[in-house]
Design goal:
- This protein has 110 residues and is mostly helical.
- It has 5 helices and 3 strands; from the N terminus they run βββααααα.
- The radius of gyration is 15 Å and the shape is globular.
Length: 110
């Protein structure tokens, strides 16, 4: 797996290379809603990643790429779940904060 992109920059998508395919993951509302509907929320999606689930990773990557999970499972399996897992987890975090802005902390007493 070769990761191309910078999650911390102003780039609103990232490319994940699986073998000879390049999959572009975009943080969209539609992707967020697909993932939430499948897992019952983002926390459950993140927990599913921790279970090293091929099905879970396929849903996450497919949602980000606008694909069907069954169309990506073989490539994910061939690449290796543990190789793809860090990118899927980072993508979920990006969906939770697509602008990349950090919240400003309020001084105490205000």
């Amino acid at each position: 797996t070769r990761y191309i992109g910078d999650w911390s920059s102003d780039v609103c998508s990232s490319d994940l290379e699986l073998g000879d395919k390049t999959i572009t993951l975009k943080p969209t509302l539609k992707a967020l809603m697909r993932i939430e509907a499948h897992f019952g929320g983002m926390r459950a999606a993140i927990e599913r990643c921790g279970e090293l689930s091929l099905d879970g990773l396929a849903v996450i990557v497919a949602a980000g790429a606008g694909m069907k999970p069954k169309d990506i499972q073989e490539d994910l399996f061939a690449e290796g779940i543990t190789n793809v897992l860090p990118y899927a987890t980072e993508y979920l975090l990006l969906l939770l904060n697509p602008t990349g802005k950090e919240s400003e902390e309020q001084p105490e007493g205000e």
